[in-house]
Amino acid sequence: MIGPMNLKDAVCIVTGSATGIGAACAERLASKGARVCINYTKSEMEAHDVAAACKKLGSSTIVVQADVSFDEDCRRLAKATIDKWGRIDGLINNAGTTKFAKHGDMNALQAADFQRIFGVNVIGPFQMTRAVASAMQQQGKGAVVNISSIAGITGMGSSVAYAASKGALNTMTLSLARALGPVIRVNAVCPGFVETRWLTGGLGQDYERLKQNYEAITPLKAIVMPEDVADAAIWLLEGADKVTGEVIMVDSGVHLGMPR
């Protein structure tokens, strides 16, 4: 069923929403009147801070601990949302992980690193989409947004395993959009260099240098903020009723290369 989603009183799950992009998505949804399931794996205090911010915006929320790499956790997260509100209208698959490793260092990553990263970044979004699909299909409408990365397009980013996982997520977005239409739309957002605790912590003392380099080579001369990514994700939920299988880059144009 094709048609715009009214986020007023809609029910949305945002995985990995205790900090960064996920938190920004949760608060954007709350500002539009949506009811939000906030998910965390380890950052419980931050998740409740996000819930408090959403409540100040007038939103009803629940906070659920779940690791999306485990199917039983995904099903429990979906069930908690349905038990609370009786429906699921939108899913933002934001939870992600990486290991920071130089691409040229072939000994920096082991099989376990790939398995963990793919478990969260690829298998997790699949399992979460599967967990909410039946509710959306029964309702006759739903939308899924996968938070991917420009790394999945350029082959750059924090590590080879991370870039490969995001490339897989982009491809899976196309597969699921084709398979789940016309009832469920599935799209992806690919951020570039985003100012988050996750990235600043991972890059450490290299953060400021790499930030300045990014700003220098992008046509828009800017890094990306979590709110920029959230705006794109929310548009894909509520305003893009004829858009599915799309991979949208929010990267200040870094994929275009150096301005001439």
Description:
The mean pLDDT is 93. The chain contains nine helices and seven strands, in the order E-H-E-H-E-H-E-H-E-H-H-E-H-H-H-E. Strands 3-2-1-4-5-6-7 form a seven-stranded parallel sheet, sandwiched between helices. It has 260 residues and is of the alpha/beta class. The radius of gyration is 17 Å and the shape is globular.
Keywords:
single chain, 260 residues, alpha/beta, 7-stranded parallel sheet
| Sheet of most strands | 7 strands, parallel
Write the H/E string, N to C: EHEHEHEHEHHEHHHE
Counting DSSP H or I runs of 4 or more residues, the number of helices is 9
Termini separation comes to: 45 Å
Strand content: 5-15%
Number of strands: 7
Sheet with the most strands: spatial strand order:
3-2-1-4-5-6-7
Overall SS class: alpha/beta
Low-confidence runs of at least 5 consecutive residues? none
Average residue pLDDT: 93
- Helical content, roughly? 40-55%
Question: Rg from C-alpha positions?
Answer: 17 Å
Globally, the shape reads globular
Please provide a brief summary of the model.
This protein is of the alpha/beta class and 260 residues long. 48% of the residues lie in helices and 14% in strands.
